[in-house]
What does this fold into?
Amino acid sequence: MTRFLVPLAIFIVLVAFLAVGLGLNPREVPSPLINKPAPAFLLPQLHQPDKTFSQQDMKGKVWLLNVWASWCVSCREEHPLLVELARTNVVPVYGLNYKDKPEDALAWLRQFGDPYVLSITDRDGRVGIDYGVYGVPETFVIDKQGAVRYKQIGPVTPAALKDKILPLVKELQS
Amino acid sequence: MKLLALIALILFACAAAADDAVPTGADPVTNKRAVQLGEKLRCLVCQNQSIEESNAELAVDLRRQIREMIAQGRSDANIIDFMVQRYGDFVLYQPPFKAATLLLWFGPVLLFAAGLAVLAYNVRRRRAQRDEQPLTAAQQKQAERLLAAGSERERQ
It folds into this structure.
């Protein structure tokens, strides 16, 4: 009897491993930035290029940094959700306009609405590299001490917002 | 002649395409280092290609980043660290050796050892089955009788 039970058990374990593996998303690479200080930047603002914005300016506040671009299709998908979130004033959302032409970016915001307190322009994607951005859109939750606490890879979904981002923001704000 | 022209055309097209891939304005040593580094790093956009192979925009940016860092006189280890800090161990084609990757490094050895153990166990069990107790006198006699009867029947 054990002659058959042992291979069967091995087979079942193997199937279980493969089933879990199928459910994982290989595109979601855990960020090494979690719980580390948000990388420093000083970039011109999209609407007022003569003014700059730095992550330092947000010390003491919990905020979201959303990486977006006018050429990014999935950004359109999450955009209404961000507009809605901005309306609730729960947490300030800042935009990192990644590898985009400012005129395209501005036109895009006019068309779809602007949920950002302000956006900054990362034309050549260097700040994107510092933040380990590899698939726009990405959203970072940054705490009062300026540490990255969560990274959403790909569009913010209603479920991710409700179950992960908003509870975390509330916890960090208190 | 037409065929020859066609072949020439194709070759020229390839040469032209190859021209695109040649990185601009760098000495051969820097180039070689940049290429070697790029081959060690995985492109996160198209995950089965290295930064050197991929044409994704991120890979292009990271190739530029590598070249700039080489120009700044940074060491290879330093450049690799830079990438790992931003994109995690996942960018490395060769995973680092640490607690979280012990199973990855020793898993194959463990599986092989387990296989050897099963094999050894089975071989020993079979040998034990074969080396049975010697026959008792009565059994010996019975066996001889049976064999004798068998050979007699063969003779007939």
Q: What stands out?
A: Chain A has five helices and seven strands.
